[in-house]
Amino acid sequence: MKFNIISRETGIEKQINDFMDQVSRSGLVFQKGARCYLTGEYENFDSVLADISVIEHKGDELKRTIIEHLHTKTLIPESRGDVLELLENMDSLLDRFKGALWRFEIERPEINLEFVNDFSELIDGVVASVEAIVKSARAFFADISSVRDHLHKVSFWETECDKISTRLRAALFRKEDLRLSQRMLLSDLARHIEKISDRAEDVADRMNIYVIKRTL
74-131: per-residue pLDDT in tens? Predict the structure, then answer.
C-alpha cells in the first residue's frame, strides 16, 4: 500500500514535482555548460550560465510557495520538519551546480587535453548522483516504500566520483611540467565538483532516516 507524506488536500504535489524538475534540470544544465567549457565552446557556455540563473530563480520561487503551503495547509504535523529540511537540502544541490559553473567562469582554468576525460567523467558522476537523489525525493513524496529503489544509487555514484577525483588529482600533481599553482587550481576545482556528490550522499543519509522513522 502506498503511503503519501503529503496530504492530497494540500494541492502542492505539482509544485513539489516542479521544484524537483528544477533541481534535476540544474544538473543537466551544469553538465552541458561544463562540457561547453571543456571543449572550448565559450559562446555556448555563456548562454548556459544565464540558463542556470533562471533555473535557480524559479527553484527559489517554488520552494517559497511550497514552504508557505506547508505552514498554512494540511500536512501530517510530525512530517513538517523533515519535509522542510529535505526541500532546503535539495535546494542546496541546485545552488552547488550554479556555484560550480560560475567557478569555471570566474577562474577560467586552463585544462590540458589529457585531463578533459577525467573532468568529464567526474561531471557525469555528480550529475548522476543528484539525479538519483531527485528520484528518491520524488518517491519520498509519492510512495515512500519505493525510496530505497533509488537511494542506494546515490552512494554508488558518490563512490565513483571519489575514485575519479582521486585519480584526477593524483595525475595533476604528477604532471611536473605544470606550474604548481595550476596543479592546485585544477585539483581544487575537481574537489569542488566532487563535493556535489558528497552533498547528495548527505541528503540521502538524512532521507534514509526519514524513511526509517516512518516504517517503525
Answer: 556 667 888 899 999 999 999 999 999 999 999 999 999 999 999 999 999 999 999 9
Q: How far apart are CA 36 and CA 157, in angstroms?
A: 23
Cβ-Cβ contacts under 8 Å for 26 (sequence gap 6 or more) = 52, 55, 56, 59, 93, 94, 97, 98
Write down the pTM of the prediction.
Answer: 0.91
Distance CA 182, CA 137 (A): 38
Question: Residue 68 has which C-alpha cell?
Answer: 508557505
Give yes or no for a contact between 58 and 22, defined as CB atoms under 8 angstroms apart. Answer: yes
Burial (CB count <10 Å: 0-12, 13-18, 19+), residue 6: buried
Nearest to 111 by CA among 49, 194, 44, 168: 168
Q: How far is it, in rounded angstroms, from Cα 140 to Cα 150?
A: 10
The single residue listed with the C-alpha cell 542556470 is 52
Picking from 65, 78, 52, 53, the residue whose alpha carbon sits closest to that of residue 16 is 65
